[in-house]
Amino acid sequence: MRIKLPYLLAVSGRLQRLAALAALLLCALGGAPGAFAQTGGPAGGDAPAGGRLVVSFSDKDLTEAQARERLARLGARLERWAPGLGFARVTAPAGRERELAQRLVAQAGIAFAVEERKTASVAAVPRDEHWGEQWGPAQVGLPAARTITRGDPSVVIAILDTGVSYWHWDLREQMWVNPGESDIDPLTGARSCAGWISQNGVYNFDVGNADPLDAHGHGTAVAGIAGAATDNRSSHTDDAYEGIAGMGGASRLMPVRVMDAAGLGWAFDIAEGIAYAADNGAAVINL
After folding, report:
1. Residue 200, pLDDT score
2. What's the CA angle centered on 286, arms 284 and 287, to 5 degrees?
3. 141 versus 7: which is more confidently predicted?
4. Neighbour tally for 244: CB within 10 Å
5. What is the residue-wise DSSP string for 146-206?
6. Do 176 and 256 form a contact (C-beta atoms < 8 A)?
7. Starting from the edge strand earliest in sequence, which strands make up the sheet with 156-161, in order?
8. In the predicted model, what is the mean pLDDT of residues 238-251?
C-alpha cells in the first residue's frame, strides 16, 4: 500500500499529523504498534533503506539528548530527531536491524520501531500523445493507480462489442492470442502463425466467422480505453509517444464481436460471446 503525500499534507493539527505519519509508516510497511515490520516490499516498491529504522517515542517531553542516549545504550545511533512528532530516524548496525527493532519495542516509552522505506512517489503520468485529451482515466486517478499496477499480461479483458480494429498501432500488440491456435516463441516473442485470427473458434458471433474486425468503431474505442498500449514510442516521430493510454495497458484484449455495423446486436449472439470469452480464459468481460 502506498499513501500519497497530498493526503498527508492535508492533515492539520499535531495529533492528526502524528496519526497520519503513524499510518504512513505502519500501513506502508505492514507493521503494527509495538512490533517490528517484516520487510516485504509493496508492489513495484523500493527496497528498504539498509540499516535505517523509524522509532516512535510515546514520551512527549523526551529531549533529543535523552533520545540519543537511550538509543546509544541499545547500539543504535540517532540520525534525525523530530521532536514535534515524537519520531526519530535511527541508524542500526548492518544485519542487526530486526534484532535492534525487537529490543527497542521491548522498552517502556517506545510505541513502535519499523524499517524505513520510500513510500511516497510522484504519479506516473502517461507520455502518450493524446493523454491530455483523455478526461476519463485522469478523472478516476489512473496516474496514481499506475504506481501500484500497470496491468498484467496474464489478465485477459474480453471486449464484447462491435469488434476491434486489431491492426491499430495502439492495439495490435495488446491482442490476446488464443493458445489453441498460436504459440509464442519465448526467445523472439514472435507468434507461430502469421496472425492471431481464430482458426479453432468463433470471434465474430454477429456474422458467424473468425474475424472480429470492427465495422462500427465503438468496440475499438472501448478497447483503447481498456488496454491501449501506454508509453509506446511513435513509429514516425522521434522522441514521441503514440496514441492514448489504456487503463490496463499491460493486460491483453480479447475482441469478441457480438454487434453489427449499426451498433445493434441479438441477445443470443451476446450470450454466445459471453460463453466464448469465459471458456477461453477471460478474467474480465466488458459488455
Report:
1. 56
2. 135
3. 141
4. 20
5. TTT----TT-EEEEEES---TTSTTTGGGB---TTT--B-TTT--BSSS----SSS-SBTT
6. no
7. 252-257, 156-161, 284-286
8. 86
Model confidence pLDDT, tens digit, residues 71-113:
998 888 999 998 878 889 998 888 888 888 888 989 888 888 9
Residues ≥6 apart with Cβ < 8 Å to 123: 4, 143, 144, 146, 147
pTM strictly above 0.85 = no
Look at the alpha carbons of 241, 246, 252, 256 in this order and tell me if their dihedral is positive or negative: negative
- Judge whether residue 31 has pLDDT over 50: no
Cα separations (Å) of 162 from 6, 165, 252, 279? 41, 10, 18, 20
d(CA 273, CA 270): 5
| Cell of residue 32, nine digits | 503494527
pLDDT score for 44 = 39
**Cell numbers representing residue 75 in the block:** 547500539
Q: How far apart, in whole angstroms, are the C-alpha atoms of residue 271 and residue 33? A: 52
Distance separating alpha carbons of residues 222 and 212, to the nearest angstrom:
14
